[in-house]
Amino acid sequence: MKPTEAYILSQPEKYQAMILHVISVVEQELGNSELLFKWGIPYVYFKKKPFCYLALIIKKVF
To answer: Which own/partner contact pairs does 33-36 have at CB distance under 8 Å and 24+ positions apart?
Structure first.
């Protein structure tokens, strides 16, 4: 399994769906994009430059 896939599958189910939706939209709109795993999180590269990263910050509300 690729590190990007492992990262996505390790997230809670509702966040997995969000990440996969963002990836599909980016791939549709930017056909020349590439999903890479850098610095411990998935990054979308466009034209060999970082375009956005997909890191979740989950805060618990008390």
So the answer is: 35/4, 36/4
